[in-house]
Specification:
Layout (H helix, E strand, L loop, with lengths): L7 E9 L3 E6 L2 E6 L15 E6 L9 E8 L2 E4 L5 H10 L11 E7 L5 E8 L2 E10 L1 E4 L2 E4 L5 H15 L3 E8 L6 E4 L5 H13 L2 E9 L4 E6 L1 E2 L3
Parallel strand pairs: 3-5, 9-12, 11-13, 12-14, 13-16
Antiparallel strand pairs: 1-2, 1-4, 2-3, 4-5, 5-6, 7-8, 8-9, 10-11, 14-15
């Protein structure tokens, strides 16, 4: 996924009210939209280098959007709205080995009245549901983690994927690691023990868990390589 315009470099001042961030660009402080509803744990230190995009649409209240933060020399993509676009590009260009050569890729497909998954992929008469989880947390060297806060919605998705397996679908969760240089992924069970327990149940039931790292730059973000999932 390429950025359509050149990103603007600045420094983080603070995040507040969840959806707002103050960014210092040169000697001016501007207010930007924060497109990430998560805790963004470990990313919000003052003076972290950031990159923001600008949109001149007069209907927008905020012209700027936070896109990338640099933490511990690693670029981190924080715009969760891009996660599905990045995965769709990966699926369409055979960058996700387990789902290569898909014959049909449908985004945002309902499984039941209450739940829709990010993608339904069809290949050789096999239908597969895919749920994407955006990953921005890393606390140890080269190990990414999810979730960064308690996620009851994430646990519901795991349980519903098990139901989908019982109805003949293959099911995948892709942990999209938008962090440069990461080599491993694990569930942050100290943050959400229930999600970890449901992860183990879903894995035993046949849900496929994949972790893919992104290549990140101020020009584009795309799927780069598969990384190992550590079970503890």
């Amino acid at each position: 996924m390429e950025f359509t315009k050149t990103l603007i470099k600045g420094k983080l001042v603070k995040r507040y009210k969840r959806f707002f961030v103050d960014i210092k660009v040169n000697k001016q402080t501007i207010v930007a939209h924060c497109p990430n509803t998560g805790s963004m744990k470990g990313l919000l230190n003052v003076n972290n280098e950031v990159w923001i995009s600008k949109n001149d649409d007069p209907k927008r209240k905020l012209k700027y959007t936070l896109e990338i933060i640099k933490v511990k020399k690693n670029l981190v993509g924080v715009n969760t709205h891009f996660a599905n676009k990045i995965v769709h590009h990966g699926l369409s260009n055979n960058l996700i080995n387990e789902l290569n050569n898909a014959q049909n890729i449908k985004p945002e497909v309902f499984f039941n009245k209450k739940t829709r998954f990010d993608f339904l992929v069809e290949k050789n008469n096999q239908k597969s549901f895919i749920e994407v989880k955006n990953v921005t947390l890393f606390r140890e060297n080269k190990i990414s983690e999810f979730p960064d806060a308690i996620t009851s919605r994430g646990s519901r998705h795991l349980k519903t994927l098990i139901d989908a397996i019982k109805k003949g679908y293959k099911c995948y969760i892709i942990f999209l690691v938008q962090i440069q240089g990461i080599e491993y992924f694990k569930i942050a069970k100290d943050i959400d023990k229930e999600y970890y327990q449901n992860y183990l149940i879903a894995k035993k039931a046949g849900v496929n868990f994949l972790a893919y790292r992104c290549e990140i730059s101020p020009k584009e973000i795309k799927v780069e390589k598969k990384i190992k999932i550590i079970d503890e």
